[in-house]
Amino acid sequence: MPIRIPDKLPAAGVLSEENIFVMTETRAVHQDIRPLRVLLLNLMPKKIETEIQLMRMLSNSPLQVNVDLLRIDNRESKNTPITHLETFYQDFAQVKQNKYDGLIITGAPLGLVQFDDVVYWDTLVEIIEWSRHHVTSTLFLCWAAQAALKVFYGLEKQTRDAKLSGVYEHRRLVALDPLVRGFDDRFLAPHSRYASFEGNFIRANTDLQIFAESDEAGVYLAVSPDCRQVYVTGHPEYDADTLHNEYQRDVGLGLAPAMPVNYYPNNDASQTPHSSWRSHGHLLFANWLNYYVYQLTPFDLGTLS
């Protein structure tokens, strides 16, 4: 089954060219089924790029998914046309009375900014708190995972001395939970962050169960006991060239970044990188939608508590 998105959203054309089944709103109104409702809070600067990446992940499922796009505030964006934001995005005030089967909160380039200095921190806290009773399961990606640890567990920001950037090997620690069903015992996933998610720190200060971990990158996947909060510290949604673009951006800014680890062929930044994490990325999102959202959500969202 398809994901349902607005007719003219750029992602619709891109995904259709990739032979991904996308149902526009015009066609979807004639479907007599109960689709899943997923809210995407997009904190990334290049919102169109992130929309495409995440909707590609959500499309790999037999379930029909209706996606609503949410922005954190009305500040002007340097990387996304205002017409795009005004056409496709809603403010929190417009959705806060709704209930959703799933919520995804993206990462944000705020790794070195203290939470209290983030201009929209209070609004983000309100949304995360709101998700407790208005969303069946929430997926926190990268920086959003660190923000959620602050909101739910009172944990202060944990920051690495140097940025973690590259593709790292992870160990699956749990064999039977459906969220990691089909995962290899060891798998690759990309990271791009200053946040630190050390396993011993997470185990000592939370009740989260860690499903996957890396010697170099720390915790990759952790889940709350009731499955309503899922923490993904990396970027399984990234395209093959996303780390490259970030690296070249930082080089251009004179930041002298370290080359992403285990990413370029022969460790040569002049060569074209390839995705080595795509299959597990799709599997993670499909499992989340099926087992943590569809299998747990009430048919009548009004009864969600």
Task: Tell me the domain tally.
Answer: 1
The parts where pLDDT drops under 50 for at least 5 residues are: 28-32
Mean pLDDT, to the nearest integer, reads 91
Number of strands: 12
Computed CA radius of gyration, to the nearest angstrom: 18 Å
Strand proportion, as a percent range, falls in 15-25%
Provide a quick synopsis of the model:
With 305 residues, the chain is of the alpha/beta class.
Please give a structural write-up:
- This protein is of the alpha/beta class.
- It has one domain (3-156, 196-238, 279-298): Rossmann fold (3-Layer(aba) Sandwich).
- Helices cover 31% and strands 24% of the residues.
- It has helices spanning 10-17, 25-28, 47-58, 82-88, 92-95, 121-134, 143-153, 199-205, 242-252, 278-294, and strands at 3-5, 22-24, 36-41, 65-70, 89-90, 100-105, 135-141, 159-172, 186-195, 209-214, 218-223, 229-232.
- Strands 1, 2, 3, 4, 5, 6, 7, 8, 9, 10, 11 and 12 form a twelve-stranded mixed β-sheet that branches.
- Strand 3 (36-41), helix 3 and strand 4 form a beta-alpha-beta unit.
- Helix 1 packs across helix 3 (47-58).
- The radius of gyration is 18 Å and the shape is globular.
- The two termini are 28 Å apart.
- Mean pLDDT is 91; it is low at 28-32.
Keywords:
305 residues; alpha/beta; Rossmann fold; acyltransferase; amino-acid biosynthesis; Class_I_gatase-like; EC 2.3.1.46; MetA_family
Give the topology, please.
Elements: E1 3-5, H1 10-17, E2 22-24, H2 25-28, E3 36-41, H3 47-58, E4 65-70, H4 82-88, E5 89-90, H5 92-95, E6 100-105, H6 121-134, E7 135-141, H7 143-153, E8 159-172, E9 186-195, H8 199-205, E10 209-214, E11 218-223, E12 229-232, H9 242-252, H10 278-294
Parallel strand pairs: 1-2, 1-4, 3-4, 3-6, 4-5, 6-7, 7-12
Antiparallel strand pairs: 8-9, 8-10, 10-11, 11-12
Helix pairs in contact: 1-3
Active site: 142 (acyl-thioester intermediate), 235 (proton acceptor), 237
Binding site for substrate: 163, 192, 249
Catalytic activity: L-homoserine + succinyl-CoA = O-succinyl-L-homoserine + CoA
